[in-house]
Amino acid sequence: MKNSVEIFNGRLISLAIEEHRLPDGRRAEFEVVHHPGGAAVLPLLDDGRVVLIRQFRPALGSMVLEIPAGRLEPGETPEACVRRELVEEVGYRAETVVKLGEMLPAVGFCDERIHLFVATGLQPAPQALEPDEYIEVLPMPLADALAMVSAGQIPDGKTQLALLLWQTRQAGPRP
Predict the structure, then answer these.
(1) What pLDDT is stored for residue 170 in this prediction?
(2) Residue 1 has pLDDT above 60, yes or no
(3) 108 within domain boundaries
(4) Helix segments in 22-125, DSSP class H
């Protein structure tokens, strides 16, 4: 059982103070950020390179190296979201989009769920950035992207996970 009082409702998120019953029966109050969820995609070029983007992120006040991603629009499926973001952010349409997994990026205070995909069979399409977006498109070998994760040069969690999930799939099952 939970009681909830919404204290903010914005374009991207809402914030509520909620009372929840804990597994031992006690009640506790929590600040919870509600987010509609998102989807992110690891684009793979025919030559095996991955396409990352360097995007200005105002919350950090800097550029971040990551995979294309976006917020789910009302009624939009995660696959439709990544197909849309792939065209908007990097200028490619995908023949095939396959789900890699999901992640919960901030379980301590937010209900956001990010669906992770890999896209292949890429064909050029006109890039269509939003007015508030600044993005540089950076194709690179998968090994270089993984080395950047190991070196701490890609701190974005969804990008780290998508790259590692893809690497694991490519390695095949372990005995």
Answers:
(1) 86
(2) no
(3) no
(4) 78-85
Tokens read off for 135: 């993005």
Containing structural domain, residue 141: 37-101+113-171
Quick one: the chain helix, strand, coil %, rounded to 5? 20, 45, 35
Q: Which two tokens stand for residue 76?
A: 């939009």
Are 164 and 117 in the same domain? yes
Residue 82 lies in a domain: yes
Question: Two tokens at 141?
Answer: 């070998």
In this predicted model, what pLDDT tens digit does every residue of 31-45 receive, in sequence order? 999 999 999 999 999
Does 139 lie in the same domain as 83? yes
Predicted TM-score (pTM) of the model is: 0.93
For residue 12, which phi and psi values (nearest 5 degrees)?
Answer: -105, -35
How many residues appear in the chain? 175
